[in-house]
Amino acid sequence: MILKNLLTELKKHFGNYLILLITLELFNFYILIPIFREITTIILQGVVIPFVSVTSILSIITNHPVLTVCLILELGLLLYAVYLQFTVILVGIAAIRQGITSIRAILSLTWQKLKQVHWSSFPLLCLYFILILPGADFLYKTPLLSKIQIPAFIQDVIAKKAALAVLMGILYLIMLYLGWRLLYTLPGMIFDNRTSRQAMRDSFAKTRGLAGLKVLGIILVISVVSAGLTWLWNFILVASQFLWDFYSHGRAASWAAVANLSLIQLGNEISLFLVTIVTILYLLPRDLSLGEVNHTRGRFFNLLIWGTVAVFSLATVINNIIYMQGWENYKPVIISHRGVSDGNGVQNTIPAMRRTAKLGLDYIEIDVHETRDHQFVVMHDENLKTLTGVDKAPYQLTLAQLTKLTAKENGARAKVVSLDHYMWSAEKLGIDLLIEIKTTDHDSKNATQRFLKKYRTTILKNKWAVHSLNYDVVKAVEKAGIKTGYLMPYNLSYPQIKTNAYGMEYSTLNQEFVTMAHSQHRQVYAWTVIDADSVKSMLYMGVDGLVTDDVQTVKQAVREYDDNHSYTMRLWNYLSLLGS
Questions:
Q1: Average model confidence (pLDDT) for the chain?
Q2: Which of 238-247, 296-305, 523-532 has the lowest mean pLDDT?
Q3: Most buried of 120, 354, 368, 518, CB within 10 angstroms?
């Protein structure tokens, strides 16, 4: 009965609800997110820091207190923007249900409601949005909240440590629980003029016991039904494409593929919107009235919205044509992370390099640290204990001491190796290297210059490349004429730096960043991908290289992605991207 009533309300103003959410979506992608990226870029460039990374964050906090304050303020603005967006959605859906369909009128009502919220509620409001982060994704997949995530490489580190994994699992469940119990907080603040503290307390009361379980059950039913209908829609379109491929050939099947892909995208977008609309309609009080308001339609504004939607749709269709016709086909560079593949040896050692090279790839990536006697050893970790059992850092031992150690991993054993020996072996085998220079606070002052003086000629002769998380290293290497890459674990700004490539952690990488990098004539390498769906997602974005711990899986995924003989398979590949 409840769902039937909600569907009746949905049908009455379905088009207007869609216009509201589409407007917000376009505003996010084309105005709000670019503004925040530009703000971050300008702030960082003001102190000659091109990017927030693991190596720069401590320097920012200790040496640039004003910058730190600016970044904290920007985070506060981001959370406030999320609050504004949810407020517009709540007020907008409530207004449309009442018959107020003008975007201008909805914005006017939103402004009236915002003025009623006291500024002292903001700190608690920020905490509220952080707490509900996992649960909010079920209600509305806003692109703003999707930017706040834990990168996959950190998740992998956590997953490998049982205690941390359990702790993170418990924390995630707690946040989901709070997201459920705090569902009525924002409606209480907006429509009942509650403070954030009062609204949270009331929300806990409304979701207590059977009443709370009923709320949770309805939301789960809405989500499951929407997911089921979406799956059915996608299945019908893929099945129809299979028939086109089987009974037809050439142009007819290709245009059917473009149409089916566009319909899949449209259906999935509408499905996400429906979950948001129906859930909020359920949460809003039945007797809610926003009062009388002048809600003339505003034809110019509506024309602007539909014009933007038309341009965006045309661009999407063009991209779909390119994808389906295979015009963007290319062979990405495949790079073995730490010189291993699928646990075939000890990372950063010569036996593993020899085995991995036989798999057929473009580069082997290795890591180097400076030693106590200012030489260079091939080693990733800043502490040797995990691999060798010796509780020391590379900078605490000489190269001779380090190369006497035996590293153990994946059931294999191998000697720790000097960079000289590794490079000599790579040259002998005809292997191309991508060398990551690791830096610590204990490195000698001229470590990078010493590296370049010793290895520049060999690197240039073999056309190898060097990359690093440390921008000062990247600048020095680029100045020496060596192909360079700047490694970035987070996607926060538009870096404007001299480098040949950006190496981005794949879970935070998006199409926008790839397009920006290519417009600067920079390549983009995604790290560290190991499963087929992630590979296909990166290829769809157009990345130039894939850093992986499993070369064979990646090569197989690339072959599957490049299969141009079946439009059905290309549709299936796209669907796998939606689930990744």
A1: 82
A2: 296-305
A3: 368
The separation between the first and the last C-alpha atoms of the chain, rounded to the nearest angstrom, is 35
Name 334's bridge partners. Answer: 546
> In whole angstroms, how far apart are CA 1 and each of 7, 139, 243, 276?
10, 21, 39, 19
SS3 call for 333: strand
In order, the DSSP letters of 153-209 are HHHHHHHTSHHHHHHHHHHHHHHHHHHHHTTTHHHHHHHS---HHHHHHHHHHHTSH
Provide the pLDDT for residue 471.
82
Judged against a pLDDT cut of 60, whether residue 481 lies above it is answered with yes
Contact between 574 and 264 (Cβ < 8 Å):
yes
Sign of CA dihedral 385, 391, 396, 401: negative
Please provide the DSSP assignment of 476-525 as one string.
Answer: HHHHTT-EEEEEES---S----S-SEEEEEGGG--HHHHHHHHHTT-EEE
The average pLDDT across 499-527 equals: 87
Which residues, in sequence order, are bridge partners of residue 415?
Answer: 406
For 92, the token pair is: 């907008």
pLDDT higher than threshold 60 for residue 51: no
Q: How many CB atoms lie within 10 A of CB 545?
A: 23
177, β-bridge pairs: none
pLDDT band at 147 (very low <50, low <70, confident <90, very high): low
| pTM tops 0.90, yes or no | no
Give pLDDT tens digits for 165-213. Answer: 788 788 878 878 887 888 888 888 888 888 888 888 998 998 888 888 8
Give the least confident one: 62-71, 186-195, 295-304, 372-381.
295-304
**What tokens does 68 get?**
């730190």
**In order of start, what are the domains of the chain with their CATH numbers?**
2-325 (no CATH), 333-561 (3.20.20.190)
b/e string for 126-158 if b means 16 or more Cβ within 10 A?
Answer: bebbebbbbbbebbbebebbebeeebbeeeeeb
- Residues in Cβ contact with 391 at an 8 Å cutoff, skipping those fewer than 6 apart: 383, 384, 385
